[in-house]
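User: Can you model how nicotinamide-adenine-dinucleotide sits in this protein?
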Amino acid sequence: MPKILLVGGAGYIGSVLSQELLERGYAVRILDRFFFGDQGLAAIRDRVEVVQADMRRIEAAHLEGVDTVINVGGLSNDPTAEYNPAANYEMNTAAAVRLAELARSAGVRRYLLASSCSVYDQGIADDQRDIVYDEDAVVRPRAAYAVSKYEAEQHLLAMAGADFCPVILRKGTVYGFSPRMRFDLVVNTFVRDALANGNIVLFRGGEMWRPLVDVHDVARAYIACVGADEPAVHGQIFNVANCNMRISELALRVRTTLRDLGIDVDVRPDYSYRGVRSYRVSTRKIERVLGFKAEVPVEDAVRDMLGQLRDRKVEDLNHPKYENIRWLRVLEEAEAILGSSGSVFDLPAATVTTLPRRAQR
Ligand SMILES: NC(=O)c1ccc[n+]([C@@H]2O[C@H](COP(=O)([O-])OP(=O)(O)OC[C@H]3O[C@@H](n4cnc5c(N)ncnc54)[C@H](O)[C@@H]3O)[C@@H](O)[C@H]2O)c1
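Assistant: Here's the modeled complex, given as structure tokens:
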């Protein structure tokens, strides 16, 4: 059974991918810091090896017996990258590259890196750059997150050789239900806001383009890259998306799907200034080279998400754990407090209590 080291395997994508790898007979070792807990692994915990560690401290021992590395760990959006750019660089670039070096030294040939179509982002100010980008396009990433992904890509691609096969997956914005749920991804946010507030807000009127893809399709794309013949994927970049859609159209599709399910939703444009991302991509290369085509449309994913949320009785939709930036801030605040007061319910370490001295007789 080929063994996969899945870094970040307890995350939104990792929780789905680990399950799909197991279903196809792969052995899975998950290495994760568990920033968002381990509930994403609840259904498979007894069938995977779990290493609780920081990806910046990966050791050769973590690669023992491993055939392929998939790295879906690190900070996974703009707000968290901008909140702590140094940590973002350490995880998304430095640790990703160090892991590649360790893998190559350990004789692990194939390494799949989770990159992002946000490397193509040029904003919405420049109509001339509003084109469909393929993997050969010259990119000029702007934000900390996109830059960190692009730099990791560049380092890894330079390592491609007779003994090492890096593969880069630039994914669009992912949607759909995962047992480690995120509501800070546009489709999921729309569903959450529709259910919690009865409305969907369109920043900048929703004129931005975005490539979108279902989380199960993402898992299938990784698995296609794991199983492909080496020459097909060696040192290659693949865009992974189902479709490119303006956010305004996306909102209307989500509204229609929810209305068909009896949920009334208002769509409200907000034209106030917001830094927004906009880009669209071609997926012809992954279709041509690997025969991979994303299958799950937004509407199906929305229906499934609703069913899963109801079946699992998920009601705390606005909990910070579902939004990476809010949750990491909560963790930081808790750490600062616990650092001085000790862990929550355990007895704090013995303290020296100074009582007033009795007067000596
Ligand atoms: N979700 C998307 O729409 C999307 C789109 C494009 C690219 N990506 C990329 O795909 C990857 C996975 O995204 P996701 O949505 O599953 O994100 P996520 O935040 O849900 O998962 C990331 C996982 O990595 C773990 N992690 C973070 N820092 C770590 C560290 N220092 N050491 C060990 N583990 C650490 C977290 O605990 C978490 O389980 C990320 O690299 C992200 O940038 C995601």
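A couple of observations from the model: The two ends are 80 Å apart (CA to CA). The CA atoms of residues 3 and 27 lie 5 Å apart.
User: Helpful, thanks.
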